[in-house]
Amino acid sequence: MPDPLLELHGLSKNFGALTVTSDVSLTVLPGEIHAIIGPNGAGKTTLIHQISGTLRPDRGTIRFAGQDVTALPFERRARLGLARSFQITSIVPGFTALENVALAVQARSGSSFRFLRPVAGEAALNDEARAALDTVGLGQVADRTAATLSHGEKRQLELAIAIAMNPRLLLLDEPLAGAGPEETERLIGILRDLRSRYGILLVEHDMQAVFALADRISVLVYGRVIVTGTVDEIRGHPEVRTAYLGEDALA
Ligand SMILES: Nc1ncnc2c1ncn2[C@@H]1O[C@H](COP(=O)(O)OP(=O)(O)OP(=O)(O)O)[C@@H](O)[C@H]1O
């Protein structure tokens, strides 16, 4: 088995008396989609915040690509290749799709493009941005203003922005939220293509999409991982069925 890209050991976090993450341990392997599912309020988003570095855990460790990153700030983790896809709110509506992605390329590369002649620097930025847009199937709309993109295209643009960070692991928090059936199918296809290039930690409510995509699934209930397993193991697991009682998501 390859070394894990991401390893969480005994991660715990309380907000006052409320335990939001309780002794969470899991791994994401290179080329794997590891999905986190769980009822509303189970602690999925706060877990993502701790992994990306915007929230400090009270206990436990986070290792990324063999390095302990528990104490590193968000930007340092991003530079190591831990990319979180941000919600649509981080897209600049008045910029084109290409400009939005070029901004992310520029943020990642810092001053490195400054050493090129201005025109060459801009061309290099745009080439990288175009490649990221092509990867998520948005090459045709590169020059459209982001505000005019459909909801599904905006979700694709978020993925392109995350890819422009040159990541090794993508942290995706509900990448299908608000997408219609056709958009969902398209996004599932894109995520499937991305799997061969990145490890993916996927938080997603759309259970059919999770079952279609995930190599492994961890089920979070009240901040605790109650089981990690393959799609078949999770579908048939009695405790998971109990946690979702009343929902037909596992049908
Ligand atoms: N900053 C905060 N201060 C206090 N409590 C918080 C804070 N952020 C989240 N919580 C609480 O922590 C718990 C876990 O929230 P979280 O958003 O991580 O759950 P979730 O599994 O992502 O939920 P959903 O599926 O509805 O998005 C919830 O009870 C929430 O109200």
From TrEMBL:
Domain ABC transporter: 6-247
GO MF annotation list: ATP binding; ATP hydrolysis activity
GO cellular component term, pick one: plasma membrane
Coiled coil spans: none
Keyword Aminoacyl-tRNA synthetase carried by entry: no
UniProt keywords, alphabetically: ATP-binding, Nucleotide-binding, Transport
Pfam families to which the protein is assigned, alphabetical: ABC_tran, BCA_ABC_TP_C
Record PROSITE patterns: ABC_TRANSPORTER_2
PANTHER family, alphabetized: ABC TRANSPORTER ATP-BINDING PROTEIN, CONSERVED COMPONENT OF ABC TRANSPORTER FOR NATURAL AMINO ACIDS-RELATED
Protein name: ABC transporter ATP-binding protein
